[in-house]
Amino acid sequence: MDLLDEPDAASSFQQGLTPVVSFTDHVLPVTSLHVDLGGVKARIYTSSLDRTYKLRSLNSPQCLYSVSCPSYVNMCIADPMEQRLFMGCGNGHIYALDLNAAATSVTAATACG
């Protein structure tokens, strides 16, 4: 089975499956997704063509961080200790964000200095 192909509705692959959580606040396609090793309290990192990065917790529907970038975000990844987040943007820049900062909604320009 090609994982990129959409399985048919009768497939045993989808029977009885329900989403654990669903996030719908990106307005353009998601470009990257990273889930840490936190188990039921895992953090979920997403980036999008809508020029935003968002951080959520698996056990809460609330967005923990939302960062607006000057260009679309190709990729986001956290360091191994999850203290900083790095965002690669379409303008060729890599932005870094301190995840321990108090603000929950920032711009890449203010986050990176």
UniProtKB/TrEMBL annotation:
It comes from Phytophthora infestans. The keyword Repeat applies. One of its GO terms (cellular component) is rixosome complex. GO terms for biological process: DNA-templated DNA replication; rRNA processing. InterPro entries: WD40/YVTN_repeat-like_dom_sf (IPR015943), WD40_repeat_dom_sf (IPR036322), WDR18/Ipi3/RID3 (IPR045227). This is Putative pre-rRNA-processing protein IPI3. Keywords: Repeat, WD repeat.
